[in-house]
Amino acid sequence: MGRQHAQLGLVYIAEEFSMLMVIPGSDVSRHSALMTRAHRFRHNIFVGEKGWEELRQPDGCERDRFDDAHAVHHICLRGEEIVGYQRLLPTTRPHLLTDVLTGLCRRAPPRGPRVFEWTRFCVAQSHRETRPLSGEMRN
User: Are residues 62 and 83 in contact, defined by beta-carbon separation less than 8 angstroms?
Assistant: First the structure.
């Protein structure tokens, strides 16, 4: 289990430092190189691994109309390597469940100033933990 260093925002895990960068959409210009890497990371996973061809972009960067000033990007770094990404979208504005994937909810999706849609969650293949299925577990 890792030790946290609250003042630096770092988590110490397995003799390596990991850092979670929280970048509000209104601040992406200050982190443009990192955000470009994050969009390539998303493209590699969602297009390259999962085969979501409708997201394919010629520049290899997966972005959509919700990557705006209201999105909140979480980028997990291990050293300089991006090992994880997720995005939060405020539900007080248009988001995937209300504008794109409208058939996923039987009722209207929850909305509110403290309710966010969690989307584009992905982890680098080299950092995914694999566990046997429950039927495969041995004593």
Answer: no
